[in-house]
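Take one protein record:
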Amino acid sequence: DDEPPEITYCVVEHTGTLTLQAMTPTLPMPAEEELNKMFLELVDELDLTQANRQAVLALPVNKKWQIYCSRKGNGTLDNGGLRTTDLSGDPEDYINRLKTIASSPFPEEDEEVSNQMRQAEALKTALRTQPHSFVLRFIELDGLNALLEVLETMNAEAANSNLHTSVIGCLKALMNNSNGRAHVLAHPTAINTISQSLATENIKTKISVLEILGAVCLVPGGHRKVLEAMLHFQQYHSERTRFQCIINNLDKNFGIYKDNLSLKTAIMSFINAVLNYGPGQVTLEFRLHLRYELLMLGIQPIIEKLRRYENETLDRHLDFFEMVRNEDEKELARKFEKEHVDTKSASAMFDLLRRKLSHTAAYPHLLSLLEHCLLLPLDYGSHPQHWLLFDRIVQQIVLQSESNETGLIRNPDVAPIEINVKEIVHLLAKEEELVAARKKAEELERENSDMSTRLAKKEQELDLRTQEKVR
């Protein structure tokens, strides 16, 4: 059957998919040519993916007319005084209400709180269902900054309320539009501000934020923004390491089974996105680098605890995490011609390095590194800065690569210490060449001196022989 599937409801949602509810038109259908022209204008407003656009344009004329009437009919849904299906709705009204929410203290009256939530929900619905031109106008009027301002000005009570969830929902709806998504990603602080919402105690808000961050990992240029956002959140929330909040929430019991399950599933989905998209799609070293960070925070025993939920969806995310981990560890072991590398054992890892480097020019440098480590003060308490410095430098040596397009050195992770590894290695190589040249010159000088000595000796012998002959 080549006929496109039945359409149930007219709404643009998530990845640009379109479903429509068949309505009985109350107006006479125009001529086919006129209808096709009207329908094409409607489709242009919907920001559909190319596949869905083609499918909708291929519908029979009677269904096109049903869809057209469903979109252009007079909407009457009223949320907080804003009509969410009226195509003539002005984005400026929504933005003004957002500014009022941002500039006002969080209300004490439940009715006023509900009113603010209705206004945010109305905007969320409008961003999802209104024409593409509505979203463009919302962007032009600086609607994104109005949403971010609401997030920035929330006090603790507002941050833990459902209003917070609704505002994050508005940002999700905006990012479901291609222009909206591009606008958010181009904003210098939007993803960082969104990440701050992980500090809330509201489970639904946490889940929505994780869904946004996980989706951004899949967008070109988005993965690095997510890593920057996690580093920003570490500083914002005064945490020891990035991902600490993520792992803590993965382990924490929030009391309600459904909330626990939903949040932990969202976290594992986010973790898998961070590990396996962006540079993680192609680079073993990058996946190992990020996974080591999560393992140091204790994710493995938590995963074993999560198996007790016996939930199919959660188990799929756990299985994927462990499957990719096992494959990566096997690939690492093959580099050392081993079946397995015990990365939990310092002595096992050192023994591998020692065997690999023992008969190479690198081995003296390994010994020198260890000898100098012994000279460091060992009592650091809770602030082992020197060891952290070593760790960060080695991480950059492992991760930095040259961009094929620009020739610039780039680090796929956020680098707290900016160093150019290639340039330093090049300078060291020049230094080695200089040392080698000096050594060669010294050898040549010694050979020349030996030759001069031998020549002088020969001249003396010749003089003696000549004198003997003359006598």
Summary: The chain has four domains: 8-72, 78-281, 384-419, 423-471. Residues 423-471 form one domain. The radius of gyration is 33 Å. The chain is about 65% helix and 5% strand.
